[in-house]
Amino acid sequence: MDLGGKILSAIKIPEWLADPVGKIITSIFILIIGLIIIKIVLVITRKILEKSSLDAVLYRFIRNAIKAILFIVILIMIVAELDGNLGGLLTILAAAGAAIALALRDSLANIAGGVIILINKPFTQDDFIDIDGTTGKVQEIDLFVTYLTTYDNKVITVPNGLINTSILTNYTKENKRRVDCCFRVGYDADIDRAKDILAAVAEQNPAIFKEPKPIIGVAGQEDNHISIDLKVWCKTEDDWRVKYFLEENVKLAFDEAGITIPFPQMDVHIKK
C-alpha cells in the first residue's frame, strides 16, 4: 500500500473515494518533498558556484536552469502518480520545446554566445573592444546582449550571438600597448636629425617605457615626402595621452628645427 493509501486507511476514508484522494495526497507529498529537495540543491549549487570563478550572469543562469529542470521532473512525477497520460505530457513538452526553440532561435543563439563569452572571457567589464567596427567600453555583459559605452557616452547594444561569430579586438586585454605614429618630412630634410628629434621627444614623456625601446625608422618614400615611423610602448590606459603628446610635440620640435612637413604639390606645364 502506498503512502496515500496508508493515510486514508488511518482516517477511515470510504473505499470508493480512497483511490483518487490517495493519489492527490501522494502528489501533494511529492510536491512538498520536491520543493524541499530543490531548495537544498540550490543551496549546495550556490555554495559551489560562489567558490568558482564564474561570472555572476552565468552563475544566475545555471541556478535558474537547475531550478527549471527540477520543477519539470517534479511535474512529471506528479502526473505519473495521478495516472495521467505521461507519454502525452512528454510529447506536449517536446513539441512545445521544439516550437519555442524555433521561435526563439535567435535568442537561443544569443544565450549560447553569452555563455561562451562568460566561460572563455575574451573580454570583461570595463575592457575597450572593437567588434567588426563597433567600438566601445564594455559596460555590462548580459546573457543575451553586451552593452558598450563609446567615448562620447553613447550606449551600444550588441547581441552576443553576433559577438561570438565576429572578429573581436580587445584593446585593454594586456596591461601595456604600443603607440604607432608616422611623421612626414620633405626630401630635403636631414633624416638623421629628424630621427634624433623623434627620440628626444619620446624621451621627454615619463609615460613612455624605456624598455622596450622606441622604434624609429624610415617607413617609406612617397611622392611628396618621406615617412618616418615612431613606435613606443606605454601602459594601456596611457595610450591616448601618449599619442596626443607625440603628435603635438613632434610638430613643435620640427618647427623649431626648421624641418618642414610637406604637403601635396603639383607642377603644371603649359605648352604654347
Provide a brief overview of the structure:
The chain has 272 residues and is of the alpha+beta class. The protein has 8 helices and 8 strands, in the order αααααββββαββαββα.
Could you characterize the architecture of this molecule?
The protein has 272 residues and is an alpha+beta fold. The chain has three domains: 3-103, Helix Hairpins, CATH 1.10.287; 122-170, SH3 type barrels; 176-257, Alpha-Beta Plaits (2-Layer Sandwich). It has helices at residues 3-10, 15-51, 56-81, 86-103, 105-120, 160-164, 191-204, 239-257, and strands at 128-131, 134-141, 145-149, 155-159, 168-170, 176-185, 215-221, 226-235. The strands form two sheets. It has a five-stranded antiparallel β-sheet. Helix 1 (3-10) crosses helix 2.
Poorly predicted runs are: none
CATH C-level of the largest domain: Mainly Alpha
Q: How is the biggest beta sheet arranged?
A: 5 strands, antiparallel
Mean pLDDT: 81
Biggest sheet, strands in spatial order?
4-3-2-1-5
Number of distinct helices = 8
Main structural class: alpha+beta
Radius of gyration: 34 Å
CATH architecture of the largest domain: Orthogonal Bundle
Distance between the termini: 120 Å
Number of domains: 3
Order of helices and strands: HHHHHEEEEHEEHEEH
CATH fold annotation of the largest domain? Helix Hairpins
Q: How much of the sequence is in beta strands?
A: 15-25%
Query: Percent helix among the residues?
Result: 40-55%
Which geometry do the CA atoms define? elongated
Per DSSP E runs of 2 or more residues, the count of β-strands stands at 8
